[in-house]
Amino acid sequence: MKTYIILSRISPEALDDPKEFRQLAEKVSARIKKECPGIVWKESYVTLGRFDVVDIVESDNPETVARAVMILRTAGHETTETLMATPWKEFLASL
Question: Going from the N-terminus, what domains does the chain have, and what CATH number goes with each?
Fold first, then answer.
């Protein structure tokens, strides 16, 4: 499986109250689980910086990752940047 890093910024207009974020996150997560069964969600982090959320996912199908990202963008009210990541040792072995 390939590893992808999804960097997200949540729109300020997405929520009226930060407490609503939990409900939005649950809704988006359920939709991704239903519509993107080929993705394994490895980890999610909230960050203080340029991005609000960093998600690490794995999938054999880049189209499934793209579908999940579009759900984040539309249902999650986020802007995203997605990176395919190669483990350092694999990268060095390929040189």
Answer: 2-94 (3.30.70.920)
